[in-house]
Structure formats: C-alpha cells, structure tokens
Amino acid sequence: MDIRQQSPNTQFPIPYMKILFTGGCTGGHFYPIIAVAEKINEQAKEKRLLPPQLFFMSDSPYDQGLLFDNNIAFVKSTSGKIRRYFSLKNFFDIFTMVRGSVKAIWTVFKIYPDVVFGKGGHGSFPALFAARVLKIPVIIHESDSSPGRVNAWAAKFAERIAISYPQAAENFPKDKVAVTGNPIRQELLPRPLPGAREFLKLEEGVPVILVVGGSQGSQTVNDAVVDILPALVEKYSIIHQTGKANINEIKITTDGILDQNPHKGRYKPFGYLDDTALRMSMSAAKLVISRAGSSIFEIAAWGIPSVVIPIPENVSHDQTKNAFYFARSGGCVVIEENNLTPTILLSEIERLLNNGELYGKMAESAKSFARLDAADKIAKEILEMALKHEV
Predict the structure, then answer these.
(1) Structure confidence at residue 217 (pLDDT)
(2) What is the C-alpha to C-alpha distance for residues 27 and 272, in angstroms, rounded to an integer?
(3) What is the Cα–Cα distance from 200 to 284, expressed in whole angstroms?
(4) Is 90 exceeded by the pLDDT of residue 313?
(5) How far is CA 173 from the centre of its chain?
(6) Based on the domain organization, do 155 and 171 belong to the same domain?
(7) Residue 79 lies in a domain
(8) pLDDT digits (tens, 9 = 90+) for 54-97
(9) 369/179 Cα distance (integer angstroms)
(10) Which residues contact 154 (CB under 8 A, 6 or more apart)?
C-alpha cells in the first residue's frame, strides 16, 4: 500500500519518516553511513514510500557534498574525546561531553526521529545518549573486530546490532546481533571500468600497485614505499595516495630519488583519490598496500590481494585484530609496523605477484570475505524499525 500524508496547506505529500545517523568524524564512520543512506533512499522509492527525512549528527559534516547528494541534513553536536592515554585534555573533554550531551537531548527532541543509526566513535555519543533518554529506537553498526567504547555502551540499549566481523559477536548480546559486513558505497562497488589505464596515464602491460594509507595518508606506509621506489618502478606502476598533508614533501623526495630513472613516469602520487580516481585505481590494481581500516572491505569487494600494515595496537585498538582476521580468510598478508622494513615489504610484494597460484587463491578469498549486501540489509532493518515506530 502506498502510504502518504498530506500537508493541510498544500496538495503535495510531505515526508513522514525521520532517520538520524550519527558517527565519529572519520571516513570509517562516515562513508558506511552514506552507503546505508543510499540504500534507504533506494528502498523507500522501490516500496513507493515517501522519501524519508535524513539527518547526520556529529562534530562536523565531514563531506558536505555527499550529504547534499543523498539529501542528508547536517546537525551539529559537540562531544569530548576520552583518550586511551594520559592527557589533560581528557579532564576538560569530560565537561565538553556532558554539556554536548545535555544539549543533544533538546536537539534530538526537536527532530524526534523514528530511529537512530549509530556508527560509533566519540562523535556519536551525544545523539545516542539523547536517543536513550527519549526512548527512540537505536540500531548500531560496529566496523571492527572488537567494539569501540561508545558502541560497547550503546549495545546495552540498542535494539539491533550489525557487525562486520563474526568474532565481534562475542562482545554483544547474541539475540541482537547480525553479521552484515561493512556497508560500501555504490560508487565504490566493483564493476567493469574500461579506460582506467588511460584515465590514470598508466603504461600498458605493466602491473599496478595501489598504495593507500587511509584518507589522511600514513607517514609509515609512505616512507616504506618511497624507500623501495626505484626497485618497484622497474617492474610495476605505482598509484600512491599520500594524504593531502604529505603530497608536496613526497613529490620533492621522489623527484630526487627518480630523477634519472627511465621509469620515473610509472610513479603516480596523489594527495587524495576522489571516488572516480579511486574506482579507476581499484579497477587497474593488481595489488593493494593498505592500512587496516574499513578500506579492507572495499579492497576485498574488488577481489584484489593486499599487503595490510595495521596501525599499532597501542594507537588503534582494532586495526591489528582486523588485519589478522582478514589474513585468516586468505585475502591478505599482514606486516606489523614494528616488523616493517623496505626489504620485507619488497619481498612480500614480489612473492605475491610472482606466484600465480597463490595470487589466484588470495583473490578468491578476498571476494568471499566481502559482503556486498551489507548496506542493503542494514537499510532494510532501519526502514522496518522506522515504520513500526511511526505507526
């Protein structure tokens, strides 16, 4: 049945369903939210429902363009961050968190969404706290193999918990959990992309290695790749996302290293790869060198073997566990940062790209690790819960 409401002052229908997204202000929290929003809009259209009103509540909008493209209104909130190490900032941020959470109750009350979807991170705490106070249904998603502190807390009152890694289920009430995988934006899902080499000006017949150290880049990964660059360009083309803050320094350094090298043109540094460039890079890549954030699932979706270098556990509690879980599936090899040397990195690259049987098995394992319907499943659950709440 086509459910519609009419405004008393106009013949046009008005939206009746409200969904509030919230998450910490990182790409690992933000992009899965966009993936779910895309599917919510798509499913609402397929079900002949009115377009729901979508909101994103966090410290900052992260990417205004993607919010606009998906009809998501940004709602500012303030939240302190409690660090895992000693810092005087922790003391002051407690007051920031309390003040932001109290203010969030009024903000969320004015919106009064039918459901709140939380991706974790300190930026999601105020909205989730307000949802609990106002008794608004909550669904959370945990991208990592072990939960962050906000999601571990929110799991106590969330009605549904979606997880990316099966082992994360040990940390949540079993009757609430569903293993969905990590939502991937439709723009980054694998599909044939003719012209990738032409777009990136890559040499024909030369295998391509894609290096991505996260959206901000990684000095550790950058240094390791630069150290072996002369050896790499002898056999491979390198697409290197350095991070915007690092690109100028990297260009100066590599221009000097490759100054007289006849294969200098095989090295392609970028501060940041936008959706089109990243999609083209994934399409052309034979191997990926990456951190162990949510990009793991995008790499797996394309079926590309990878060398994963997780952020150390004392800095990021989750990346090492994520990396080794992915490695157990057979889709990647892991080099821990304290073991990372130019010699080891080059050796692993050569081992993977020169062993056709091993490479083929890793590609198949990567594909089986990815769950391409994650966003679709989560969006369906959010819509069903929102409809129940609205009624």
Answers:
(1) 58
(2) 13
(3) 9
(4) no
(5) 24
(6) yes
(7) yes
(8) 999 999 999 999 999 999 999 999 875 654 544 555 444 565 66
(9) 12
(10) 118, 120, 124, 128, 138, 140
Q: Which domain holds residue 209?
A: 190-369
pLDDT per residue as tens digits for the range 218-260 = 889 999 999 999 999 999 999 999 999 999 999 999 999 999 9
- Average the pLDDT over each of 213-217, 275-279, 311-315, 340-344 and give the range with the smallest value: 213-217
Give the predicted TM-score (pTM) of the model. Answer: 0.87
Q: CATH number of the domain that 386 lies in?
A: 3.40.50.2000
Let me know whether 361 and 260 are in one domain. yes
How far does the chain reach from its first CA to its final CA, in angstroms? Answer: 14
Same domain, 172 and 284: no
Instruction: Work out the angle between the directed axes of helices 219-227 and 247-257 (0-180°, nearest 10).
Output: 10
- Residue 361 CB coordination number (10 Å): 14
Domain identity same for 242 and 288: yes
Per-residue CA distances from 84 to 89, 148, 183, 321, 338 (Å):
11, 11, 27, 17, 20
Adjacency order of strands within the sheet including 287-290:
267-270, 237-241, 208-212, 287-290, 306-308, 332-334
Distances (CA, A) of 83 to 71, 149, 369: 33, 11, 32
